[in-house]
Every structure is written in structure tokens, then in C-alpha cells.
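Below is how a single chain appears once it has passed through the pipeline. First comes the sequence as given, then the structure the pipeline wrote out for it. We keep one example in the README because the format questions we get most often are answered faster by looking than by reading.
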Amino acid sequence: MKIKQVKARQVYDCRCTPTVEVDVTLDSGAFGRAIVASGASTGKFEALELRDGDPSRFRGKTVYQAIKNIEQEIAPAVIGFDASRQADLDQLLIELDGTPNKTRLGANALLGVSMAAAYAAAQEAGVPLYRHLGGAEARTLPASWVQLFNGGVHTERSIDIQDFSIIPMNARNHDEYLEIGYEIFQTTKDMLRELGKPVGSGDEGGFWPIFDYNEEALELIMQAIRRAGFKPREEIMITMDVAASSFFADGKYHLELEDKHLSAQEWAQMLESWVDKYPIISIEDGMAEEDWQGWELLTARIGDRCQLVGDDLFTTNVERIQEGIRRGAANASLIKLNQIGTVTETLAAVKVSQNANYLPVVSARSGDTEDNTCVHIAVATNSGQLKPGGLTRTCRINKYNEVVRIGQELGDKAIWPIPDLFARFLK
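Resulting structure:
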């Protein structure tokens, strides 16, 4: 299991933005490869994604310094290390960087090595990554949020809310779940064409139409659900990623589409009115990342009937999740590997969430790749939820396909989490 070789290179995500790919080879010949995803809507508390900043090359987004850090500092430190000791390896990487947010070597450099080493160790053990990380109890297939609309910073603010997805609540397995999601996705496309709205996709694979007001997206989803032959609330629920930090300034929530400037209380009331009116089961980043009081208010108002997911609020950081638990802010946490920078820290964020009865939602990024580590993290931790994006773009469909493969591997041992996953909110 000892690491023999570490190689790194610059490759490209789904937006052709440079990112880091790492290969780890063990003495035995076992091999692991990983690509680090990248986000556009990033929280200010995320670990640092190191980029070169040279405007003459890929508009400053090259990652050659991160690669140099892998080759000149990280590789010499990990050669000869036992890749099966993931926690110790990741601790070595953290100490090697020596900063709270991986600002010296870069979270993308550390994470690439951490993930590739995990894959190499799994190959040496002769098991898939989810089994290597999660053990024999890793057998819950995640219900994937099927994104219909992209918005916010992913679509040049065609709508203030960042994305809208659906969850088929009566699907008996992943295949049926995806079939229902596909039918509603295609029905949405048909409706948009009839309305003369664009049907192009945003960074995360959802449609990118032009909206006149924010609630219009919810109205169209309701129409699409019914037109596809399903019943809202009874059969289909809606999730939203508000990404409120992106329109929060000077203590107010600014909705550009409607030229509204709302206090935290007014904004929480608006979200509550949407939950009352529509079958919304989950709201991600409903309040801004530094508006702890707003989060406490929103959780008190609707936390008993809606999953409230902290993304920018928590940034897959154990300390921030613990602070949210202490304050009673949110009741779920978004999990993104590159927000924190190592596999072990990602797993720890899931465990802390689960121990506090906060639901973890493992997520891809807007700048994602063919790498499917997030799917394996979801299964390894029995999280039950995955946020891969819309039903278009290879980097999105890769995630859905990986769930299919894992489901086939698990066979009768696979656990399907729907509808029990949201039982506490559907009382």
C-alpha cells in the first residue's frame, strides 16, 4: 500500500476552466486518479482553490502553481506513505500546508492527492471506493436532485434564485426515480419552447430561460409536474438552492428581478409563503453565509417542515457545522469535497451532521468533471442524497450512471432512501 509515485497535471472542467488531476501509484502497481471539481458560487469560508492569477493565460485560472506544489512539496512528503491510512495521510497533507484554509499549497492540490490516494488504496484492496471508505455498511443509494432550472451566478442572473430541482417521492428505486425525473425534465423543455423561452442549459445542467419574476420558476415547475402526469406534493417535491449570499448586502436581501430590498424577516416570510404555497421539501442557503440570526429565524419558522441546507454557511467545515448545531441554524449540510480539501475532513463533516440529526447532501460543483468521487462519498456515508445537477452535460450524467453501476454491484443489499428520508418534514 505504500505510495511509489505521484503525478499531477492541468486538465479542464466542464466549462474548460483549468483544474488539477492527480495520479497516485503504489508499490504494488495499484493506481488511483482523481480530478478536482471547481465552484463558481463559492462561500467565503471555503478552503482556497489556488490559481495562478496570470490574466494572459486562461484569464488567470491556470493551476500550475498548485501542480508545482504537488510535484515539489507534496509528492516527496508522501512517497513511501501507506495509502490505506487515509486519515493519517490527510493529516500529513494538512500539516504540510500549515494554514487554516489551505492557502499555502492550495486545497485543490491537497484534495487531488487525497482522492487519488484513496482510489489507489481501494484498487489495491480490490474494492470500489465507496466500500473502501464506508465499509460493509455502505449500501444506501442516493436520491439525486434532478435540476430543472439554473439561475443566479450560473446564468448571469436570469433569475435571483440559483437553482430549482425535483425529487420524485414515490419512486421505488433509482431507475424509476430517474425515469420520472427525465419525463418532467423533458416536459419542462417542451413547455419552455411553447412559451418562446430559451432551452439552453446552465453550468449545472438545468435550463436557463429568462424569467420575469422569481416565483415564475415555481409556477412553471408545478405546470410541468402536472402536465407530465404526476401530482405535486403527493408524488413530486421541489428543492431550491437560493444562494442568498449572492444577493445579500448591507443587511438586506436584494431581488434584482423584482427590485425588492428585504430585511431578513421579510425575506424569511417570503420563503415561508413559498413553502406554504408550493411542495418545497428543501431550501439550500436560504439565508446569507454571515446572517446567523437570519438562519436562526428561518429555521424556527419552517425547519420542522422543510430541509434547510447550509452550503455557504457551513462549507463542509466541522467547526462551522458545529456552530450551526449550537445555534439551531439549518437542519442539513451540503457536502463538497473541494470546500474543505481532503477526503477525511469531508467524511468528518458528514459524520458530525448525522450525529446531530442534520441531513447531509453530497454535491457536485458547477465546474465539475468526469470524476465521480462525490457519488462514492454519498454511498460510503449512507447520506441518502446527491446533488448532481440537470439531465444534460456528460459531467452530470456521469454521476447518475455511477449510481446505476453501484446499485448493480450492491444488488439486493442496496437501500433506497425514498420516501423515508424526509419523514420528519412530512408529518
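The chain is about 40% helix and 20% strand.

See the next section for the split statistics.
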